[in-house]
């Protein structure tokens, strides 16, 4: 392996690690009940101020008070997912918390089958529990019930991406951007796909759009680091 090949290999590995962290971070944040996913009501705000165990305890009580409210089951699923996201991947109880999250999301969609955000988070729970077929089915259902759910396309694309199908992944990311041209997550993921395809100029362009859209987020900061890596690599080749 010559020096140029080694540099390029190191670059791609760095981008892969950074991008995977960015995608997973976004998934965890979306499952932690941000205002964008819930309408920003008072309950969502209070839950976000709690640690994951307190969220679980609160939602157990609220679900007992009204088990017919799909939103309550959705929040309960988010609480379990948030707890699981804080555990090491090898933690023996992580799968159990992800399973509890999936159960809550299933209860939510059993009450309201059109709740695309619950289908999306169900897909994320399955993905994190190493059940890609179930994750894909849930994300495809989210798109079926809400064809404008940008995150559903982003995460479905990420599933294809993780399995090495960059062409289908790009199609999903571009569909997300056709709905929301300012989606930081879609631009970020598309940038990664370009980088893996060694189309570095387009990767930089996509990541610069992430930085413009959301510069202070973890996603924006990671995109900035990726751009620096590519520009440094390009400078070294001159």
Describe this entry's structure for a reader.
- The longest helix has 29 residues.
- With 238 residues, the protein is mainly α.
Radius of gyration: 19 Å
Average pLDDT reading: 84
Proportion of helical residues? over 70%
Number of strands: 0
List the helices and strands and how they pair.
Blueprint (H helix, E strand, L loop, with lengths): L2 H29 L3 H4 L3 H7 L3 H14 L4 H16 L8 H18 L4 H13 L3 H14 L4 H13 L3 H14 L4 H13 L3 H14 L4 H19 L2
Helix pairs in contact: 1-11, 1-13, 4-5, 5-6, 5-7, 6-7, 7-8, 7-9, 8-9, 9-10, 9-11, 10-11, 11-12, 12-13
What are the salient characteristics of this protein?
238 residues; mainly alpha; 79% helix; disordered N terminus
Give a summary of the structure in a few sentences:
Helix content is 79%, strand content 0%. It is mostly helical. Helix 1 packs antiparallel against helix 13 (218-236) and helix 9 (150-162) runs parallel beside helix 11 (184-196).
């Amino acid at each position: 392996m010559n020096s140029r090949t080694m540099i390029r290999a190191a670059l791609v590995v760095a981008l892969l690690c950074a991008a995977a962290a960015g995608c997973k971070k976004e998934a965890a944040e979306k499952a932690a009940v941000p205002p964008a996913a819930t309408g920003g009501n008072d309950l969502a705000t209070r839950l976000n101020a709690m640690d994951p165990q307190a969220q679980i305890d609160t939602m157990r009580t609220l679900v007992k008070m009204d088990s017919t409210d799909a939103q309550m089951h959705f929040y309960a699923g988010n609480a379990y997912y948030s707890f699981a996201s804080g555990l090491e991947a090898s933690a023996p109880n992580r799968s159990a918390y992800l399973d509890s999250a999936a159960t809550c999301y299933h209860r939510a969609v059993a009450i309201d089958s059109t709740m695309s955000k619950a289908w999306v988070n169900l897909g994320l729970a399955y993905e994190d529990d190493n059940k890609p077929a179930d994750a894909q089915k849930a994300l495809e259902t989210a798109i079926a019930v809400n064809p404008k759910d940008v995150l559903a396309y982003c995460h479905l694309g990420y599933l294809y991406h993780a399995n090495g199908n960059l062409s289908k992944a790009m199609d999903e990311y571009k569909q997300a951007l056709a709905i929301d041209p300012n989606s930081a997550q879609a631009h970020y993921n598309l940038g990664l796909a370009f980088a893996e395809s060694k189309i570095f100029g387009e990767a930089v362009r996509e990541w610069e759009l992430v930085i413009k859209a959301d510069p202070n987020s973890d996603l924006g900061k990671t995109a900035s680091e990726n751009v620096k890596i590519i520009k440094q690599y390009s400078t070294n080749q001159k």
